[in-house]
Amino acid sequence: MPARRHFGSVRRLPSGRYQASYWHLADRHLADQTFATKGEAYAWLSTVEANILKGGWIAPSAGKETVGVYATAWLEHRPNLRPRTRELYSYLLDHHVVPTFRDVNLADMTVARIRAWHDELDHEHNAIAPKAYRLLKTIFGSAVEDRRILANPCQIKGAAAEHAAERPVATIAEVEALADAVTPQYRTMVLLAAWCSLRFGELAALTRRRIDPIHGVVEVNETLTETANGLRQLGPPKTKAGQRTVTVPPHVLPEVTEHLAKYVGPGSDALVFPAPDGKGYLRRSNFTRRVWKPATKAVGIALHFHDLRHSGLTWTAATGATLAELMRRAGHASPRAALIYQHATEDRDRVLAAALSELHMQAEVIHIDERRSGTGR
Fold first, then answer.
1. Is 341 considered catalytic here?
2. How far is CA 128 from each of CA 121, 160, 280, rounded to the nearest angstrom?
3. C-alpha distances in angstroms, 86 versus 76, 77, 78, 94?
4. pTM recorded for the entire structure
5. What mean pLDDT is reported for the chain?
6. pLDDT (0 to 100) of residue 1
7. Which residue in 210, 309, 310, 329 is the catalytic one?
8. 10 Å Cβ neighbour count for 11?
């Protein structure tokens, strides 16, 4: 009976150790290590053969590309990223990823190595650590797809989760006070941010054609993004869910109608909330410094403009809105973001408790009536 033919070949080196090699895809590949015995060399070749047969083979040279080179190319080859997203990714790579892993080969990245990096980053910059980890995991996911490595080494449970402090929720009275305190031409902007849960970029991009006072709705189709270097870009919302139609509460609609008549040009493309001089888009930094901060100081509350949207969604949840209704009104693409607004407030919890008691009383009345009529058991 002929001897079994081994996959690959093994030869003895002058040093006495053994070198393994094999042919695959018309190329000869050498093991990146030598072996003490011929049996160890053939065992390694058997593992390679099994990987080839099950489709898990990676060229030995593939993982030798460094993290610095691969990550830089990864970002360059994503032209469709939004400006602020690209700016964030570039910052994270330049300051928190590449300095640590610049010269490390992709194949040499291990769970332990990434855990040590994440633990240090979480200790020094706990707000940045989840973002940097998510980016690194995404990059290594691409490396797996590109057949540079077999598996993603970012496997740390909970490392991607952010634990941001609870954002403040303004009262209705505080929002009214802020609307009174800002420059009159931005009063309605404050009200729409709170009562329609619109983002700053959505409001800054809003044009006359997107508001229908007759039916009482605002159509969100564009958003204005602004990077740290001042670059502004008009484009569609980040997700398809962001393109939505939001109904304006009846008590706010007269304010919207008055604002359109008093502060907005007649053209359909006229900006609803332009820059103070009426020319061009409203710049977030200028608005914060000249309009928003003086108003919050005058009212005496510490609140970011985005907290108006957060407050409005919290109020909406307190009315008993379903998760789907919250997602639609907020323009959320996934339930995760909308779920934070479904936490029960004390006032809402009291309403629910009262409703349960009412349900109990109704059941008791029915039970008593059944006993009196003799139909109850």
1. yes
2. 8, 10, 34
3. 10, 11, 9, 12
4. 0.62
5. 86
6. 40
7. 309
8. 10
